[in-house]
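Collaborator request, handled under Task 6.
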Amino acid sequence: MLRRLSYWLPVLLVFLLVAGNSYWQQVQQRLLAMPIQFTDELFELRAGASARQLCELWQQQQQLSAWQCQQLKFHLRQHPEQAQLQQGLYRVSSPMSLSQVLALFRSGRVAQFSVTLIEGETLVQSWQRFAQLPYLQQDLTQITELQQLLRWPAEWGELAPMPELTQQMEGLFFPDTYFYTANSKASSIWLRAHLALLTQLEQAWQQRQPDLPLQNPYQLLTLASIIEKESGLQAERGLVSSVFVNRLNTGMRLQTDPTVIYGVADYNGRITRAHLRDPHPYNTYRHHGLPPGPISLVSLSALKAAAAPEQSDYYYFVSRGDGSHVFSQTLEQHNSAVRKYILGQNNEQ
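Structure tokens returned to the collaborator:
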């Protein structure tokens, strides 16, 4: 009898251990599969937060029981690597299993936010939108503080000698979508946008056509900003550029409305004769050559058009009213197009 017992006892113990381990694994699987609900799509895991503290939170919310929290504690003792959580603001969905939640908080894949600088927008407009961005540390309190971020090479041309710093810094940030995480500094995004502009402008300047009437990259940027404001149709920008280059080459005034608008304070959507007569430095109806500096943020397509205009004999263009333009070689042709598309007159009458 004792021999039989001594034989079967180890077998029984092994069976009990296997059965117990199997049961414990099932308990753990059910625990890790427990759904966790979040009241918001974002959840902040603060520095020093632990799985135990999270479990206490979910217990208070009646999502987990005290016994389940104890089970989780035992589970993490067996798998300590699963308790290595990283602080940050995470984007979550509801429900997520407990296993998915812990895996997300271990991954460090914190929520990403984005801001888009828009081509054709002024620096002031961009600054105003930046001030409304969520989860961004506004470490710059005044728009003039952007000047400390500039890395503008002196040999690229003197920045606009204007009393307003916003005009001196106009166009020096590249329009694009920039991603950031919670508590990033606004200054870091502005710096990235400025460095991106320097990279794109340098490349455009290096690839420019020979014999352009431009003395430095700053003048290229200024011309590109006018092209940006004059035409949103990329297929036309090479021709728009050719008109301005032809005018510069022959000493004609550029006479472009966006430069007038940029320099007036009382613009309400309609250009008046008084605006056209205003002698402010950006008014290309009153002054020859390019304005003192850019008038907006500049896209890559506008930079390329300024650096490589199409070859044409055009000196004029007028909007058709649908985003496209009619290009003319002579003033007579231009006036005819103006009567048709601006004044609504039939040229055959």
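The cover message to the collaborator said: "Residues 115-312 form one domain. The mean pLDDT is 90. Please let us know whether this matches your experimental observations."
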